[in-house]
Design a protein that fits this description.
Shape: globular
Largest sheet: 7 strands, mixed
Distance between the termini: 37 Å
Structural class: mainly beta
Strand content: over 45%
Radius of gyration: 13 Å
Amino acid sequence: VQLVESGGGLVQPGGSLRLSCTASGFTFSYYDMSWYRQGPGKERELVASITNSVGGGRTDYADSVKGRFTISRDNDKNTLYLQMNNLKPDDTAVYYCNRYGNYWGQGTQVTVSS
């Protein structure tokens, strides 16, 4: 199993970023997938999740990102996405892609600052 995140960077408050997670080594469409983040001095927290094909791609979000972030997946491309809009300084964190079974990517840094 391999998960590789990309798309992080430095953005001003109110800006947008789209994170990607490219998966390999397993049948991507079979698994629920999630994005987590860990901010400075904070514990890792669940940001958003999306069910597998059988689950219909149902999504769920942390209250802190509802209405601003959108999780999606492209099963043909084995890729998970996180569209982040109206970013705030509190969104600064390392963002991780996760597959059920305790599989993690290496993370991608998102910094929201003016």
